[in-house]
Task: structure prediction
Amino acid sequence: MTSLVRATGTPTMKRLPLALAALVALGLSSALPAVAQEPQHEGDSGTVHYPIRKPEQLTWTFAGFFGHFDPAQLQRGFQVYREVCANCHSMKLVAFRALGQEGGPHFGDAEVKALAAEYQITDGPDASGDMFERPGRPSDYLPSPFPNDQAAAAANGGAVPPDLSLMAKARGVGRGVLWGLLDFFTQYQEGGPDYIHALLTGYSEPPEGVEVPEGANYNPYFNAGPALAMPPPLSDGQVTYADGTPGTVDQYARDVSAFLMWVAEPHLVERKRMGFQVVIFLIVFAGLMYVTKKKVWAAVPH
Amino acid sequence: MAATSSYQPKSGFAKWLEARLPIIGLVHSSFVVYPVPRNLNYLWTFGAILAFMLVVQIATGVVLAMHYTPHATMAMTSIEQIMRDVNYGWLLRYLHANGGSMFFLAVYIHMLRGLYYGSYKEPREVLWILGVIIFLLMMATAFMGYVLPWGQMSFWAATVITNLFSAIPLVGESITTWLWGGFAVDNPTLNRFYSLHYLLPFMIAGVVVLHIWALHVVGQNNPTGIEIKSKQDTVPFTPHATIKDSFGLACFLILFAWLVFFLPNYLGHPDNYIAADPLKTPPHIVPEWYFLPFYAILRAIPNKLLGVIALFGSIAILIFVPWLDTSRVRSAVYRPLYRQFFWIFVLTGIGLGYLGSQQPEGVYVIAARILTFYYFAHFLIVMPLIGILERPKPMPSSITEAVLAKVKDQSGVAAETRA
Result:
């Protein structure tokens, strides 16, 4: 397997593969310029009439090889969710107990209990067959703002506000082939939070010539459907942080995006920590195997 | 699995057992003293890697099945319970989901290795065909597994693929209804897919046994494509192949771990974290990456029935490769022309994969048609023609001669660099 082209075969034969390769390359290259021009978006179905913008890539504490959540940020994010988002959006997969998780928001046991008790949970039926209300317990799941999808739609102009439990993993932006390949090495997995942050901070007046349907809102980052029903949810000073962090829309958006990432991937910190150990172990193990292999094969030319 | 065994039982129990069931002897002759060509390169470690991946998939899958609920309203929630509340559930699920991708990566390398070194040629035709059957079973298993989370992509992939059968004339509609267990993809479809997803891996394991059996009857091919002629052409499986496979596997696992622990959703689609909604079609339905080339072939053909035929034909054609290749020489090492066409074929596959991920419109369709044509032409025109027209390079008389020539070559180069 040394030289690829050697003087064998007839002259025409030698050129045959080249000609075919050129044909194949032609087919591919005719496709490539289109890739460069046309941005790839998962929601780009032709129903959105304005150009969709790419979210800005932010720096997150949970990105990369040693990524971890910042508990203070997650606690702030939970506050934003609770005071703003939770008015319309459910978070059905999260139990109060999870809020005490190490590596997550890490509220203390007493805090989690107190927090849960602030909610009224419908339980039952009791011995006489009636449903009843009681204060929440850590084992309860976060209650939803609406009893069902129909009620949610009726209260929100016909659009159901989606559940946020998996939102940070259920949204992304097409990265294209080259960025996609690069992501494998840079470990970029933060398309979801980048998107959520961009969406929450991206509302603006529609540019001239763009018509926004009745009841919809202009947001050049929205890529998950024909029109965004959600009005701008955040405004400066809307939530008062106890730790003195400035109350800006950008800050709220960052905090709640980080919180939603934790909600979607609660074991991220544990995963990356274990991954570090596993990769180190495997490299050492592979090294030992290699040395042993060398020794075993030393006497046999191969 | 050779007929005779050189195994000599030593302990009393081993003697007793061997007289009744010579299973230790079977293992001994198959995986200890079994002669392997001394010149195998690292591409030959993928057989062991694939066997390992099958075990990983079955082991993680069986535990996942203990926690999963195959119901249209509960499937996704049950998987999220696994991710959140089951001990190391997130690890099991990410291992299983990414394990599928790694399985396909390994199988594609394994198959291309076979195509490059002519491992399908006489007397290994049955070995090769068993491999194609395993590949088909893998595809069915992976597809049904992808449906189980019952996310948007799960649901719509199931819809697209099961709808293919409706292209069959006369009985197509009835077959599709029968596959669905209703008049649309719904809970009965999910239930039967789950059942089959659990069944097929054990069928794969069965065919793998036949595959290894056939391998041990005809012996391994090797980079020269020359059959083993004497004992000095070979080394015993253990420790030589065992340790080399272990090293190859360890390197493969580093890649696997990189995906599972740091990029677990890299190969997935965000839409599959949205619960299935029969009333909302995603704008862009794409299969997992390993199906993209075949998806491109399906969509390249404007006629539905012909598209389905092309899709299945693109895999079925592999069965006939041993007879489509007319060359007297096995290995591409000695086939200068075939070697170039081989790499063009690889590029065609990658190109089709890229096109499968794009919207089927405009230039993409034209490119997909050109590449689909070339995909089939590679097997139906290039392979038979080159075998006749090509003048192979001179071949060494044995594996040992090839190895010694290579070693001499290398030490000569080393001496030159030293001087």
In short: The mean pLDDT of chain B is 95. The domain at 29-418 of chain B is CATH 1.20.810.10 (Cytochrome Bc1 Complex; Chain C). Chain B touches chain A through 67 residues (CB under 8 Å).
